[in-house]
Amino acid sequence: MIDSHPRKIVSVVFWKAANGNEPARNWLKSLTKNQRKIIGEDVKTVEMGWPLGLPLVKHLGKGIWEVRSSFRNGIARILFKMHENEMVLLHGFIKKSQKTPSQALEIAIKRA
Prior knowledge:
Elements: E1 11-14, H1 23-29, H2 33-49, E2 57-61, E3 64-71, E4 74-83, E5 86-95, H3 102-111
């Protein structure tokens, strides 16, 4: 019998600070229900189809990748690294300019 249920290629985990704080999870909780749904669907697409490229996923360098999510009124990015079979969510933000802010990338690199 063939299993028709797709299997995750990678598992999603949140980066956790020494104090137990999970900044990416906290950021997601601060968004609207619709924004969380869209980002969640995009992250699930990565879970099921890794490795992926543009337009959904972009490599930013130094082992940092971004999931690119679009809403009717904005654009979000969630930065992650791959560790074995885990997609480690490091940092999230709403984009306000064309280029990924260097500060957001620096935060993700420090957490990686």
